[in-house]
């Protein structure tokens, strides 16, 4: 099901139509995704990475999830947007020119960084996060009283310690911010073709399934689903599931 607004996406270059991010998809509560291709590549690669790291190869769960994930990953990789090769060349050049800005550990606390380079299943990704603008008028009052402005004059020892932390805090406004160019977008026709090949609804629904599968991996690893059952099944308990020739 597709909304008219999605089918009549604005023209950005010639006759190629692109889906406008944030517009209704026709499904309640589900909006058009801004970058579905790069998101799916990252989710699928991360899922494969966690499966190989935490689940044994003999596990039927790992084998089935890997088969579906690799199949869909290949379909997404085959859908290449226009100008992708040129964008890749510019991206490699930017990474080489600013190695300190992107070679950051995924476990480190990164404040103010616009993009982080991470490794997933043998692939390199630059995870880009846009800061969320918060309107103070929409925030609920926490009950804190307004005590007015700061008092002038000398400070106590405790107040001076707080000032030292404030002064020594790194000012990100003085740090050079590297602008990361997002991956070129797929056209509406390319996304429609990809949706038909995957056969699991809209591309936004596919993304939701991929996010759920990625979260499920951690749960399955914690439960160790590949280990034998604590209570052995009775003899012939599963016989009725078998298809007899």
From TrEMBL:
Coiled-coil residue windows: none
Q: Which terms are listed as keywords in the entry? A: Electron transport, Membrane, Mitochondrion, Mitochondrion inner membrane, Respiratory chain, Transport
The answer, when asked if Phosphoprotein is one of the entry's keywords, is no
Q: How does it sit in the membrane?
A: Peripheral membrane protein
Please name the GO terms of the biological process aspect recorded for this protein, alphabetically. Answer: respiratory electron transport chain
The primary location reported for this protein is: mitochondrion
Parts of the chain that traverse the membrane: none
Whether Membrane counts among this entry's keywords is yes
Q: Which Pfam families match?
A: ETC_C1_NDUFA5 (PF04716)
Sorted alphabetically, which InterPro entries does this protein's record hold?
NDUFA5
User: Highest taxon of the source?
Assistant: Eukaryota
User: Where in or outside the cell is it found?
Assistant: Mitochondrion inner membrane
Instruction: Give any Gene Ontology cellular component.
Output: mitochondrial inner membrane
Q: Which family does it belong to?
A: Belongs to the complex I NDUFA5 subunit family.
Please state what the protein is called.
ETC complex I subunit conserved region-domain-containing protein
Organism lineage reads as: Eukaryota, Fungi, Dikarya, Ascomycota, Pezizomycotina
């Amino acid at each position: 099901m597709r909304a008219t607004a999605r089918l009549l996406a604005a023209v950005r270059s010639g006759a190629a139509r692109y889906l406008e991010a944030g517009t209704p998809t026709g499904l309640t509560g589900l909006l058009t995704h801004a970058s579905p291709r790069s998101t799916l590549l990252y989710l699928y690669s991360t899922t494969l990475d966690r499966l190989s790291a935490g689940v044994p190869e003999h596990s039927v769960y790992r084998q089935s999830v890997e088969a579906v994930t690799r199949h869909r990953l290949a379909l997404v990789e085959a859908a290449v947007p226009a100008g992708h090769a040129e964008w890749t060349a510019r991206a490699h050049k930017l990474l080489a020119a600013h190695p300190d800005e992107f070679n950051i550990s995924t476990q480190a606390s990164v404040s103010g960084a616009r993009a982080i380079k991470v490794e997933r299943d043998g692939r390199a990704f630059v995870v880009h996060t846009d800061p969320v603008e918060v309107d103070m008028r929409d925030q609920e009052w926490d009950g804190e009283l307004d005590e007015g402005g700061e008092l002038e004059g000398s400070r106590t020892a405790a107040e001076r310690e707080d000032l030292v932390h404030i002064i020594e805090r790194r000012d990100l406004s003085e740090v050079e911010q590297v602008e990361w160019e997002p991956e070129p977008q797929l056209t509406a026709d390319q996304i429609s073709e990809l949706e038909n090949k995957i056969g699991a609804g809209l591309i936004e629904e596919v993304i939701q399934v991929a996010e759920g599968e990625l979260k499920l991996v951690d749960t399955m690893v914690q439960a160790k689903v590949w280990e034998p059952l604590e209570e052995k099944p009775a003899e012939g308990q599963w016989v009725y599931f078998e298809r007899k020739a």
